[in-house]
Input
Amino acid sequence: MALLEVENLKTTFKTDDGIVTAVDGVSFTLEKGETLGIVGESGSGKSVTCLTIMGLNDPRNTVSEGAARLDGVDLLTTDPESLRALRGMKIAMIFQDPMTSLNPVKKIGWQLEEAVLVHRDVSRKESRALAIEAMKSVRIPRAEQRVDDYPHQFSGGMRQRVMIAMALINEPEIVIADEPTTALDVTTQAQILDLMNELQRERGMAIIMITHDLGVVAEVADEVIVMYGGQVAEHARVDEIFYHPRHPYTWGLLGSLPRLDLEVERLAQIPGQPPSLLNPPSGCRFHPRCTFAMDVCRIEVPPLVSFGESSHLQRCWLDDATKERESARTIASLQQEAS
Amino acid sequence: MSTLLSVENLKMHFPITRGIVFQKQVAAVRAVDGVSFEVKSGETLGIVGESGCGKSTLARCLLRLLDPTDGTIMFDNRDITHLSRAEMRPLRREMMMVFQDPYASLNPRKRVGFTVAEPLEVNGIGTPADRKRRVQELLEVVGLSPEHYNRFPHEFSGGQRQRIGVARALAVNPKLIVCDEPVSALDVSVQAQILNLLKDLQREFGLTYVVIAHDLNVVRHISDRVMVMYLGKIVELASDRELYKHPLHPYTGALMSAVPAPNPKLARERRPIVLEGDVPNPINPPDGCRFHPRCPRVQSGVCDVDEPELLEVTTGHSRACHFPLEHWPMSPEELRQPASTAPALTAT
Output
């Protein structure tokens, strides 16, 4: 059995302007030690998917449907008490912005200890030792002294390390990282990705990495979900997504990225804007921006089906031959190395 | 090509003071600390560096939004370093800026037409009717439609707002446009639209750009020449192709190797040069080469004592390093062993 099974997850928010379906039928499974990358633009539903799994949406205006089973326990329907016991223990989260996710008036050490004391019956002495150990494990130098520092005394990269330490302190089986490196500089990003990779190898935890950066996904993920307008547009192994993409949105994304290794005069661009989820386009969510849009795309939502015999899931009405051809063309245009 | 902008030994130090009545300066944040370069008319100069390297401060100095501590700025063969506000005013229309955050840089209470027309109005260009025509024309140029004239910023998406910001900068036909992180706040699929727009406009109107970004991919795509900054100093300056093919400064190498490539096979083989630690404090920058505490090639007795000068190695390619990279890419092991242990102080 898979570690985490998410089935037909659907999250709707009641807002003043109407009902927003932020996540619309997302399913995936996560195995032990695997890294799943979820890519998408702002408003694609990638973060809400994970907040729903963690039960962190505001219950007053949110309705969640579907199931998210962690070791057989459905996180969506289980009672708050047992959810609290699981959260931070078996499934933990690393948030995007370490500047705002840490309490500025509490010492780093205490914030780490708190995560331990909530879940385990240990003394303060033991919890402090665990906090120092966790800080060492994320390579924070002089952990014994820095445990008594406040967040403002840490740099951005170091604060993100603290966030990682906090998520990992109870050795969870699943870590959800929501844009863990977006607020950081590239060299710091490299350090953090490197660290997460190493920790995953040591502990064998599963990671869900949410990001908008295709580069980061290529780096860390085994499996990739491309989200668009609250739905899964494409879901496949990382090599499949990058070398045999089967969805026009993925082609557009890959073509529109400026790259270090490629010299192009003009970037391929996806016209238009990401859709509003308040009144999403009829039919395929991507059709207003898609250069291949046909009549059927405007009317009917394409199902998420596998491409041919493979496990490569995609949501597009185009016929397989066209997809094959266009995907090859996109990839070929990206491989002309500038001479 | 003539030189549009030339900067000599520019310094911007922000004083840190103590005391309430009698403030005395106790230290200074050396945000920009001796920077010299030129921008030719019609080219794009990209400036990259991590947060805190002084790239935004530099941009603000170029436009005289900040008064530099020392150095000279020549714009169109005229020394603008010490011009008064009144003297600067007629020059302002020659140099415009596109800001990073399209949500914060447009007045939410003003209609788009007003925002875009404001530079025209301030400079007393045309009659109100002329200005309206010009603004509608501009909106079209940047890919919006003239009907957007009467809308408010909140009715637009991020990409469209950035287009408005570009239209405003174009309004008075400037020679120089400084773009501070023009696409970093935008969605991936919209970034390409704005980058293409900037390139098209440059071709059409013969604009000169100074583009500041932390994203090397973006800078690489849009620039003719790229300047890499670290802690208020230029560490390397070269044409974009030259820089990406043959980086000479270890910091440039580290930056480039840290950019994740959207290519899983490359990513698996890639061995990034992971720099230790963080960018030091610009109040008290390290002695010698400012990069030496994090540099994998550091040689004690040289790098921590002598500050390397920015020297031109080949035409148009300068670097400030005692032990520049011999070739690229380099493995971390090779990187740690500079070919000559003797200080390469003289330029060849």
In short: Chain A has a mean pLDDT of 90. Chain A touches chain B through 49 residues (CB under 8 Å).
